[in-house]
Amino acid sequence: MKAMILAAGRGERMRPLTDHTPKPLLPVNGKPLLVHHLEALARAGITDVVINTAWLGAQIPAALGDGERWGLNLQYSDEGAAALETGGGIHKALPLLGDAPFLLVNGDVFCAYPWQALTGLRAGDLAHLLLVPNPGHNPTGDFVLAQGRAHSGEGHRLTYSGCALLSPALFADCSPGRFPLAPLLRRAMEADRVSAERWEGLWCDVGTPERLQTLEAQLHGDLG
């Protein structure tokens, strides 16, 4: 299985930290956030990883190289000066990802989930989502989890973690350009083609300097 890390965003809420550094290269517990992802993927036996880039994008391959130091094969999908959003970025990278389901990880989250546990999609499904308890910055959540299926109807919502297993077929009707991922997921949910699970372990959307500090404290054991 291949993996894709989304790393093209501007990181507006992280400014001024991201004025000169892409958000996924910001240090967390002594190493760039992207390196934490690469180490976790390598531990899970995933060796082929695609990273999309845009804002200050040249810094990312300069910092990570070809991935050999982690036993990985890294490829880069350069989106130029303006990021293509989540959906458009994935769509552009599909030629590098192949025809099989692939793991998707947002480059600006920290997640301790064991990626080797994601073994595949159920026949006919287009996605499997990792959902987490709602953090303070997203109190109403995103999607409902019921009997292992995700939907966007009524019920207690959980937050999409930014991590998923996706089928390239999810993008079958898409055209190149800038577009988000969420509408594609909702359309697939309406057809009951999205599974999901709840993750209670360590997860953080590293979206602001304050959350970055909270994550640092957690990793140092300063918080329960």
UniProtKB/TrEMBL annotation:
Region forming the signal peptide: none
Q: Where is the Nucleotidyl transferase domain?
A: 2-117
Q: Which domain of life is it from?
A: Bacteria
Q: Which SUPFAM superfamilies match?
A: Nucleotide-diphospho-sugar transferases
Give the record's keywords alphabetically: Nucleotidyltransferase, Transferase
- KW Nucleotidyltransferase (keyword) present: yes
Which InterPro entries does the record match to this protein?
GlmU-like (IPR050065), MurU (IPR054790), NTP_transferase_dom (IPR005835), Nucleotide-diphossugar_trans (IPR029044)
Q: Which PANTHER family match?
A: N-ACETYLMURAMATE ALPHA-1-PHOSPHATE URIDYLYLTRANSFERASE, NUCLEOTIDYL TRANSFERASE
Alphabetical list of NCBIfam families matching this protein: NAMPUrTaseMurU (NF045761)
Identification of the protein by name: Nucleotidyltransferase family protein
Organism, by scientific name, is Ferrimonas gelatinilytica
